[in-house]
Amino acid sequence: MKAYLTRRYMFSASHRLHSETMSMEENLATYGKCNNPYGHGHNYALEVTVSGQVDEQTGMICNLVDLDGFVKREVLEHFDVQNLNTLPEFAKNVPTTEHLCIVLYEIVQRGFKFAHLEKVRLEETMMNSFEYAGGAETRI
């Protein structure tokens, strides 16, 4: 019996949407107020959805302690209260929430081996959320 588990985590980070390959005018036209030279911050809500067979003995897909510990150690401790522009993950890419969502998916995909990762969903604001479910064509 396959089941799905979605767990929600919160972290805060700042970023400036700015591409070195575009002029100042192009950046402003593309990113608008998000191109502010001082950046801006968000209180992100990250949802991690995993799936798997329900273990007959435990009744669980995976132990929440394992999932929470992994996300805390590999995601929250690395990204919380950070300027995304300064992190190595964004040395070559604009730290849009789309890119951040892909990066978070890849971290969980590589490291969490207790259940199958279905997708990550990242809520940036009440009006914006992004999902990524993997795909070989979208490595950043």
Record keyword descriptors for this entry.
140 residues; alpha+beta; Tetrahydropterin Synthase, Chain A; five-stranded mixed sheet; 3 helices
Descriptive notes:
The chain contains 3 helices and 5 strands. The chain has 140 residues and is of the alpha+beta class. It has one domain (2-138): 6-pyruvoyl tetrahydropterin synthase/QueD (Tetrahydropterin Synthase, Chain A), CATH 3.30.479. A 5-stranded mixed β-sheet has the order 3-1-2-4-5. Strand 4 and strand 5 form a beta hairpin. The model has no long low-confidence stretch (mean pLDDT 95).
List the helices and strands and how they pair.
Layout: E1 2-15, H1 24-31, E2 40-53, H2 64-79, E3 82-83, H3 97-111, E4 116-123, E5 129-132
Parallel strand pairs: 1-3
Antiparallel strand pairs: 1-2, 2-4, 4-5
Helix pairs in contact: 2-3
Query: β content, as a range?
Result: 25-35%
CATH fold-type name: Tetrahydropterin Synthase, Chain A
> Fraction of residues in helices?
25-40%
Number of strands: 5
**What value does the Rg take, in angstroms?**
17 Å
Task: Characterize the overall form.
Answer: elongated
Count of separate DSSP helical elements: 3
- What's the rounded overall pLDDT mean? 95
Order of helices and strands: EHEHEHEE
Q: CATH homologous superfamily name?
A: 6-pyruvoyl tetrahydropterin synthase/QueD
Structural class: alpha+beta
- CATH architect. name: 2-Layer Sandwich
Strand order of the largest sheet: 3-1-2-4-5
Quaternary: single chain
Number of domains: 1
Q: How far is the first residue's CA from the last residue's CA?
A: 34 Å
Which stretches are low in confidence, meaning pLDDT under 50 for 5 or more residues running? none
> Main β-sheet, in a few words?
5 strands, mixed
Any idea of the CATH class? Answer: Alpha Beta
